[in-house]
Specification:
alpha/beta, UDP-N-acetylmuramoyl-L-alanine:D-glutamate ligase, Protein-Tyrosine Phosphatase, Chain A, nine-stranded mixed β-sheet
Length: 452
Amino acid sequence: MKQITKYQNQKVLVLGLAKSGFSAAKLLHDLGALVTVNDGKPFEENPMAQDLLSLGVKVITGSHPIELLDEDFSLMVKNPGIPYDQPLVKKALEKGIPVITEVELAYEIAECPIIGITGTNGKTTTTTMIAEILNRGMKEGQARLSGNIGFPASSVAQEAQPEDKLVMELSSFQLMGIQTFHPKVAVITNLFSAHLDYHGSREEYVKAKWHIQQNMTSEDTLILNWKQAELRSLAEQTKAQVLPFSSEEKVAGAYLLDGNLCFKEEVLMPASELGVPGVHNIENALAAICVAKTQGIANEAIVAALTSFTGVPHRTQFVAKINERLFYNDSKATNILATEMALGGFDPSKLILLAGGLDRGNSFDDLIPSLEGVKAVILFGETKEKLADAAQKAGITEIHFTENAETAVPVAYEISQPGDAILLSPANASWDQYKNFEIRGDRYMAAVRALS
């Protein structure tokens, strides 16, 4: 990593631990900063805080005292999930203290180029596809996953060598905290309304996503989903070279034509040979192809990676084939839009959908068009009655209720026929029954494996 000196003897407040805060605090300490960490979890329940204290980092836990800012801090590094109206953050901004997220630190120390991926849906799948393609086709170095995908960027950047690539998933929350962050290649998979409770409006959410390109130049490449008029319009406002992809029309980049994935005038492979189903995954693959082409990756490596790609855990992930039934885990589908996209990848007449979860007060009428023709639904959780109403309106006659995602599995198997697909795509958050969507997906997959 670059041995930068700008933080030596600078007083820095790291607000919020978790993986990224812990990584940022350790890095800043190693760079000679005078670090104070403030985390809401009590010290006795906080092993990360305990580790940092043992290194000589000042640690304040259990609350967020506003008096902390009486000290002369030159910087705050904020956990991305902490909103800007949090009292300490608000006060820091009022005092003129810069507030960043740890991806900014990662950029400052990285010796290798960054490929940044953001968007509303498909970030993790696209990021993983890109890394797998690059690792098949790069002649030297390796593609290193980092960022919102679960590997703190500031940790991965410390290990990366100059010949490597940092393939970094970036959330809107992270992008709000950048200043000089500068990817050589950036991708925006799509833009839909999301996290409006955090951002306040769609306009502010889009603005945060658009930060990804704010420091890019004409020597950099910005890859955009050309299907979206909003992104076509935004493309006029960047200094970067724009490389489009589209699942609907031929463009000067990657596109779907006559059932084939193409780049410019080249046909790479039939879309049907992708290792994961759905139009949304075709779009993810097209974005990944664009990145691969900017890095000079051969078509053979691109095709080999995309045909063998079986998905990211909990995102339309293939689980097993049992007596000619195909099981898929899309537990990450915590909203209607994500389930709509998953449903688009299957023949509805051979599909059994498992859905349900936390009741946030919304109806499921928007899901009705995507449910039409689905063979059967098995519903659980707080929203099962609402989903049953939507299923009935969609003309589905086979509707079953069960306790949870695990108990839905034997029911689905019992009513299925050879050739059917059984898909967990809940369209709801998991918190009525599970701590997170990962646990929900893991328990579903364990139930599937128990069948065999």
